[in-house]
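quick one before i forget lol
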Amino acid sequence: MPTHDPEADGAKMSFAKDMSYIDYLSLDPILGAQNLQSTAHDEMLFIIQHQTSELWMRLALHELSSARDLLAKGDFQPVFKMLTRVSRIFEQLNTAWDVLRTMTPSEYTEFRDDLGASSGFQSHQYRLIEFILGNRNRAMMKVHEHRPELHHMLGQELETKSLYHVALDQLAQGLDMEFDQAVFRMDASHLADDAVMHAWTKVYENPREYWSLYELAEKLVDLEDYFRRWRFNHVTTVERIIGFKRGTGGTSGVTYLRRMLEVELFPELWNLRGQL
């Protein structure tokens, strides 16, 4: 069989003067960013797992920010697409835990001390995702004080309505009502509210009349569903690899992560199901 020449089929083969795939994706700095601190074979897995997770979170933030802006304008259809995409991003992040779980406790021990005090607990992107979704705690910003630009960015988010706040604005407008301003806690996590619960229940009892709000609610539930699965897989992965040791960043490790499983982002959307 003759050797195939892709250039003969029209493929561009010379990029001395043009942007290539490597150039467009800035692959040189990305593929050169795995700075191992040890000689342990599995440290490469650990670093890439977390770097790729941060890239997916970068995309999640891009989608969530745009979705919030469009929802504030009442432009529901692209919001549905964006929230679906974020759910799929967390599905992707969930699958990544399966790769990390191929690392055994013995293998992790070989380089754990080389991490120093660094920990996923310090991820500013994860914190920003939580803030945008409504799980807000100003005390969590302290870990970012050494990076003023990140600390400022998180502070600005706490002065901005969360995605759920904006959804509640649309809910109130769609039902021609108003919620008490106490519902909109800017720098603390959202608490279940009876008036909000009643409003969402009305939507679920009349989905045809309030279809856009009904679909929005389900997109939010989908998102939190995948987010919860990600948290659960995080807990089980950590327990499988380090047991109940303290985290490298000083947290209680599995004990802390298990507490996070109890957090509800959109409590009314879950609680109303028992009343329908």
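fyi The first helix runs from residue 21 to 24.
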